[in-house]
Specification:
Length: 499
């Protein structure tokens, strides 16, 4: 039996723009994600429209499945609707709560700030959403066919509500050789990983592999990397904080508003709680506790909004996080946490930290330093030797985050500066800050986790398609898969496969 046809409309030669189409027959298909391209993966012209354009036919597309709410997986949904898509949008229960807010922010940036138009769009999106429980088998309506399609979402452990998708196609075939023309049915299972989380990530249960599949479409963001374990990364984070307290400096953490920010808050609360408890056991007073001095500033309206949503959705937290709540702790709402929403307060805070010697940790978007409030902090503090920049997530090629990470202390990065005329000019900023990368805090699975996702399947796939990774990462993971499973067709979809 021939394997199902899959077209990739993004995230084949990089890590953004995730959008994949599963074809059931010539009349029916479904999309898995519809994300925005970022960094060097945007169009050569750099046109905002080209980044978002739906350049593939939608006539056969019957539904959209959303694996999670990161912008590189959902950012093109407004354009999908503008191109004529009006089918259901299937997602997890938590994603259904988070997605309207993410898309509202995307519409404000890319389309309009008109409140009435935004409100109408969000109402329309909510009407299209079909929330599913994890493990709930759901049929998708197809047109002019005897084939059947059902999907099932399983926890992916990436961010709250994230899922991988099991698609089961039941194909009806007519045997023309017999007089009775009997019909036979063949079943295929295709799994789309979305973004898989690493085991022991804060707040979320670890993903469990499916029992079997015929085809696996799997991400490879860290296909060539092994993350540090949780104890090591906590120790590293603690050292960075201690350095900031000692030097009266600022730790800047560019972070996605959804997922990464909440995980960092969870870890910071734990570090502060454990070290404060140790000092109290030694007879130190609160006044002598340096951990009580440092402020944790989340400067992002969207991140603050989603942190509140995370608190409300604590039923989806893992057992460890729920245990801390029962103990009377508040992992996402502790005393040293300061939230900033107003832009004027943001600018005042940037100037205050630039002028004063006050130890602080600032978490702000965007995660790859392409825009947003983190850019103002970087412009103000990159030249200060007391500053520490901590990258905890992937930095795509062509982003300022990747340039800072690559060049490091003594290097440089360019940012756009506004001139009095209103025009924008590229300005070079020297990096005197200390640069750190903690991939162990990545919400993505590493090479070992990705290999284990297949290893723990009872029945292995006939084909593995590696997506959502730079070429180096995909090639490294491809080599490992081929070495472990020479009988599996492990392929890397290329640009010429995008239709």
């Amino acid at each position: 039996m021939a394997l199902a046809k899959i077209s990739h409309h993004g995230a084949v030669n990089g890590v953004t723009g995730s959008c994949h189409e599963l074809h059931i027959d010539s009349n029916n298909s479904i999309l898995i994600d519809c994300g925005l391209f970022q960094g060097a993966e945007t169009s050569p012209s750099g046109s905002h429209h080209d980044q978002m354009a739906i350049d593939f036919p939608l006539k056969a597309v019957q539904a959209l499945i959303v694996t999670h709410v990161h912008i590189d997986h959902v950012g093109r949904i407004p354009y999908l609707l503008a191109a004529g898509f009006d089918g259901p949008i299937f997602c997890s229960q938590a994603t259904a709560i988070l997605l309207p807010d993410v898309l509202e922010d995307a519409v404000k940036i890319g389309f309009t700030k008109n409140r009435h138009l935004i409100s109408k769009f969000i109402q329309h999106i909510k009407a299209m959403l079909v929330p599913l429980d994890y493990g709930q088998k759901t049929s998708i309506e197809l047109k002019n066919t005897q084939h059947k399609l059902a999907i099932k979402l399983k926890p992916a452990g990436h961010i709250l509500g994230s899922a991988y998708v099991e698609c089961e196609i039941l194909q009806s075939e007519t045997d023309s050789k017999t007089l009775a023309q009997t019909q036979t049915q063949r079943k295929q299972k295709i799994v789309f990983s979305g973004d898989l989380g690493a085991p022991y990530a804060p707040l979320l249960p670890a993903p469990k592999s499916p029992y079997s599949c015929d085809q696996l479409v799997i991400e490879s963001t860290y296909g060539d990397k092994i993350h540090a374990n949780r104890r090591h990364r906590q120790a590293h984070l603690k050292k960075i904080i201690e350095r900031a307290v000692k030097n009266r400096g600022v730790v800047l953490i560019p972070a996605f508003s959804i997922g990464r920010t909440q995980e960092l808050l969870y870890e910071l609360e734990n570090i502060i709680a454990l070290n404060s408890r140790t000092l109290l056991k030694k007879g130190k007073s609160i006044i002598e506790n340096p951990w009580e001095e440092i402020e944790i500033i989340v400067d992002s309206p969207l991140a603050n909004e989603f942190t509140e949503k995370y608190r409300q959705l604590s039923d989806f937290w893992d057992a460890e996080a729920q245990k801390r709540v029962r103990e009377g702790r508040h992992p996402l709402d502790f005393s040293q946490l300061i939230t900033i929403n107003e832009h004027s307060t943001h600018m005042d805070t940037v100037q205050y930290l630039q002028k004063t010697a006050r130890p602080a940790i600032v978490i702000s978007a965007s995660g790859m330093c392409t825009s947003g409030r983190i850019v103002n902090y970087l412009k103000a503090l990159l030249g200060d030797e007391r500053t520490d920049i901590l990258f905890t997530g992937y930095q795509a090629q062509g982003t300022p985050g990747r340039d800072i990470q690559k060049h490091g202390k003594g290097g440089y990065v360019f940012f756009d500066d506004s001139e009095p005329s209103g025009r924008s000019k590229r300005k070079k900023y020297t990096i005197n800050a200390n640069i750190h990368t903690l991939s162990g805090y990545s919400a993505h699975a590493d090479q070992t986790n990705l290999l284990n996702f297949v290893k723990r399947m009872r029945h292995k796939p006939k084909q593995i398609r590696l997506i959502h990774g730079d070429d180096e990462a995909r090639q490294a993971l491809q080599g490992k898969f081929k070495e472990a499973y020479p009988e599996i067709d492990v392929m890397m979809p290329a640009k010429e496969n995008i239709k």
